[in-house]
């Protein structure tokens, strides 16, 4: 995965969660994007080749309090999307993470990947994220053209055999 590098805190503060609550399915830890009563943000630079990609991450919300609606903005490759999670029956032992995804295309080279809290500025209980990954996605058009090319080559072979006979 391309998103395995070091993260930098870009605004406010965040809480890196060790074993305080359940980790996402992929293991590792998670981050509460609201730390010390300040809306936080994290980022890293990734360097993909040109192509289509999928950003995937697990999202939950800090079950300890605050507004039950937790929000964040995910940004990558010049596009951004807001995601929301409503806490309810999730708990330290069962965070009920949801897998979120976002597709994007890049011309290649270094691009920023970031997550920024959308929560109330006076809360220390924000959106929780973990298991972040960026993976290549085959382009359907490319696969279709590849398949059409194979059919065309097979057709030419048949035609040559018929002409030679």
Summarize the SSE layout with pairings.
Blueprint: E1 8-11, E2 15-17, E3 30-32, E4 34-35, E5 38-39, E6 41-46, E7 51-61, E8 69-76, E9 79-86, E10 98-106, E11 111-117, E12 127-136, H1 140-164
Antiparallel strand pairs: 1-6, 2-3, 3-12, 4-5, 6-11, 7-10, 7-12, 8-9, 8-11
Report a brief summary of the structure.
The chain is α+β, with helices and mostly antiparallel strands. It is built from one helix and twelve strands; from the N terminus they run ββββββββββββα.
Q: How would a crystallographer describe the biggest sheet?
A: 5 strands, antiparallel
Coarse morphology: elongated
Based on secondary structure, the structural category is alpha+beta
Strand order of the largest sheet: 1-6-11-8-9
**Uncertain runs:** none
Output the number of helix runs: 1
Q: What's the end-to-end separation, in Å? A: 53 Å
Number of β-strand runs = 12
Order of helix and strand elements from N to C terminus: EEEEEEEEEEEEH
Radius of gyration: 22 Å
Q: Mean pLDDT score, rounded?
A: 86
Helix proportion:
10-25%
């Amino acid at each position: 995965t391309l998103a395995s590098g070091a993260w930098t805190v870009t605004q406010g503060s965040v809480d890196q969660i060790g074993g305080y609550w359940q980790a996402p399915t992929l293991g590792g830890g998670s981050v509460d994007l609201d730390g010390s009563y300040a809306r936080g943000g994290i980022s890293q630079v990734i360097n993909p080749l040109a192509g289509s990609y999928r950003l995937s991450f697990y999202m939950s919300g800090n079950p300890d309090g605050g507004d039950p609606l937790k929000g964040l903005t995910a940004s990558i490759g010049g596009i951004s999307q807001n995601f929301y999670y409503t806490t309810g029956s999730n708990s330290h032992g069962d965070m009920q993470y949801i897998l979120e995804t976002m597709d994007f295309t890049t011309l290649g080279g270094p691009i920023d990947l970031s997550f920024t809290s959308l929560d109330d500025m006076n809360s220390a209980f924000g959106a929780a994220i973990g298991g972040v990954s960026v993976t290549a996605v085959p382009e359907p058009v490319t696969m279709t053209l590849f398949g059409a090319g194979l059919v065309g080559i097979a057709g030419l072979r048949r035609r040559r055999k018929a002409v030679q006979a």
